[in-house]
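Pipeline run #58 for the internal structure catalog. This entry was flagged by the ingest filter as a single-chain record with no existing model, so it goes straight to prediction. Upstream metadata was stripped on purpose; only the residue string is passed forward. Reviewer on rotation: M.T. Logging verbosity set to normal.
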Amino acid sequence: MNRRAPLKPLAWSILLGTLLVPPGCGPDEAQIKMAEAMCARANPKADYDVSARFIQSYARPDDKDFIMWAMDHSSLCLMGGNYDQAKAELLQCVADIENHQDTEKEKQAALSDESAKIFKGEPFERAMLCTYLGLLHYMDGDYNNARIFCTRANMADQTTAENMAKYRDDFQLAHFWLGKAYLKLGQEDNARIAFVKACTRVPRDNEQEELQATQRNQASEREKRMRLEAESYRLATRGDKPVPGATDVSASPGLTEMPETLPGYPSQHPAEQIVLRGASSREEMCSSVFQKDVNLILVVETGLGPIKYLLGENQFADTIIRAPYPERNVLVYLNGQLAGQAWQMLDLFHQADTRGTTEKDQAQVAKGVTQSILRRLPYIGYLADFWIVKGDHRYWHLLPGEVHVYAAKVRPGLYNVTIESFDSNGKLLPRLRLTRYYLPVREGQENIYMLHTVAEADNVYMTPKND
């Protein structure tokens, strides 16, 4: 007997949604543009400029969520390489967070719906905002402002919760750029302290269990995916007219098994050595001596940022979870030659999960419990339903999940930069290869590039050449 598997909740939602939508109805143009903008980090064909202009139209001071939209707008600008516009937007966000007050909305949020107040982000979001500004000022050669904003990033992330005291100074990416700024300002002692903090990561209590679960899930998913890859290759190469350029990626190597030279590139000759000085560990990369010699830095953003949603009988509490994404490790190739590893310098879910319990959280619990009790009392239970005690489910949608940094001294020239991504088991993710062509490494200066991994970014159909 052939039994069908029961529909999962998501499948039921899709089915019911399909049945409830009248024939001929569908999302309007604005909804489509919003979906495209919110999916820009995972879309290989995203038009960052178009999405940035669309989202910018929502960042109006009369909207209580205008800072949230401004944050998303800045992310789109960063992904699109429009750094000047991103910096201007981020600076405005900082000013609005500090100066924009609405007492009435604050009172309303304290008594009922938490999202009624002006959105100003979670501590880790404000820390990332300032870290971006530190990086952008550093790229502009404004090292003092880079120092100021990276310091502010660390201050923004310093939770007051006593049970999270050990995580108060662990925003590694901000410490890294702070160390870089101190070096440029000639403050080597401060730089050394900042670099030590950039390498210091205090594990969460349940981190090992989470990693093991992720490894099991990714191993299972990979096994299914590789079977499909092998079947796709078999179908693409059978018969008299095989698909040009078809490649079998079902036997992809692991992190420690990657070739020195990518297919399609000539083998490297010792006299043509590209990497003159690289880092074999995060600690080596985060040292003043090494950083003084660096002329190429790649800031590689991977995955999707933390997701916030509401839970509880009356949705009084908000919680943050890690978004599903496979990338956990990154290797860098320059002109097809293995150049080294990009080291993880920030895990945003780690930052979100170590915020601790705030007074706002305690107030929300009190409101939620009180309403639940009142709902069950005779006579006034009906009225209690009109008391909205929802938490705040707003968040910065377009943050990355992690940030990895590659730094080295390389021979000046033009480079094809290839990023290879690996899962939590160190297995290659062939569909996540990312290549950027002809990036210049100019002599006598630091060359900094921001990249973000995208699935299928290199999956381009190659037409056959005419003989």
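catalog note: The mean pLDDT is 85.
catalog note: The CA atoms of residues 38 and 372 lie 34 Å apart.
status: ready for reviewer M.T.
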